[in-house]
Amino acid sequence: MTSQSSDPHAASDVPSRAPSAIAVDDEVLPFEIDSLDLRGRMVRLGPALDDILTKHDYPAPVGKLLGEAIALTALLGSALKFQGRFLLQTQTDGPVSFMVVDFKSPDQIRAYARFDKARLAEGLSSGALLGNGHLAMTIDQGAHMSRYQGLVALHGGSLEEAAHEYFLRSEQIPTRVRLAVGEEWRGEEGGPKHRWRAGGMLLQFLPQSTERARQADLHPGDAPEGTAPHVVAEDDAWVEGQSLIATVEDLELLDPDLSGERLVYRLFHERGVRVFSPQSVRAQCSCSREAVAAMLASFEPADRTDMVKDGQVEVTCEFCSSVYRFTPQEAGVEDQAPGAP
Ligand SMILES: [Zn+2]
Fold first, then answer.
1. Gap from CA of 316 to ligand 1 centroid (Å)
2. By C-alpha distance, which of 248, 271, 276, 280 is closest to 261?
């Protein structure tokens, strides 16, 4: 499946498992097409995605949209080269008003969404579910490193489009992303069982010469009428890469009987494609009693006092629904004067 290569670090990238015939879920598979200066990642999510979406019992349109955000975050977060966090957040005026996906390296992912049930309808596109607002991607490398945040405006477009714009504006890397989320019914004892699946692919053009990575500017937006758009001829290699990834069908991204290796080979074999060691992804919240206590300690005393209900302070983690209970003393609530309300 891999092309022969004289790349010196190829030897250190010996796959940790033999190429699989069928999809291996909850894994990210990096790949390269050297002859076109393309790098990519392919993600397949099964149990990890199903765990997050099923525990929250999201309505299907919310599950599908949050699933896309989770697949996108797995593609981007798994590329972190250091211990850190990759956060994707949307804040918009559509039926799904808020989403957050938190990837903690090397492999933990968690997510939740807020939505208005009354405004949900079957068949709404991702863009219509999101509406207008913004998408933020934050890379946090820990206490001693700077935090990087990139923002993209959302105007009824999809998460795929937002990702293209993010990379164009923030990193000037020509990028294409494909995302698909599906529901699967599998026959099991006691009746068919519902499961969520997702698949995604990221393709980036990274030539040695940055000149080759130049792209046409974004739509001029509010520029005066008649302003000529800035035309830049795209590099042939990137034109070919885009046309190849554009042929990927949602069904192929989701197919449990088609491995990532086979799909990547199907798309790029004529140009020679190498795959690297897959990275696993798991649904795991990173909340803890200590972290919640530290958060409480950062609140104003009056706010902590307001949180006391029935003689205790109760905090529910929005990611995993874990409930943490503290006595007023543990939560740092000052003793109230006798007779105080
Ligand atoms: Zn949690």
1. 8
2. 276
Supply the DSSP symbol for 210: G
Whether residue 15 lies inside any domain: the answer is no
Q: How far is the CA of 138 from the centre of ligand 1 (A)?
A: 19
| pTM, entire model | 0.86
If asked whether residues 320 and 203 sit together in one domain, one would say: no
What DSSP designation does 276 have?
-
Cα–Cα distance measured from residue 4 to residue 91, given in angstroms and rounded to the nearest whole number: 46
Residue 186 Cα, ligand 1 centroid: separation in angstroms?
29
Question: Which residue in 27, 138, 18 sits closest to 86, CA to CA?
Answer: 138
Instruction: For helices 60-77 and 47-56, give the axis angle rounded to 10 degrees.
Output: 140
Q: Is the pLDDT score of 245 beyond 80?
A: yes
Tell me if 71 sits within 8 A of 45, measured CB to CB.
yes
Same domain, 33 and 106: yes
- Which of 109 and 142 is assigned the larger pLDDT? 109
Distance from Cα 317 to the centre of ligand 1, integer Å: 5
At 334 the pLDDT is: 75
- CA of residue 49 to ligand 1 center, whole Å: 16
Of the CA atoms within 13 Å of residue 333, those in its CB half-sphere come to 21
Range of the domain at 252: 25-185+194-210+234-283
Judge if 145 and 103 occupy the same domain: yes
CA of residue 322 to ligand 1 center, whole Å: 6
How far is ligand 1, taken at its centre, from the CA of residue 184, in Å? 26
Distance (angstroms) between ligand 1 centre and the Cα of 253 equals 29
Would the pLDDT of 11 be above 60?
A: no
Tell me, yes or no, whether 7 lies in a domain: no
Question: According to the model, what pLDDT value does residue 221 have?
Answer: 57
Q: How many structural domains does the chain have?
A: 2
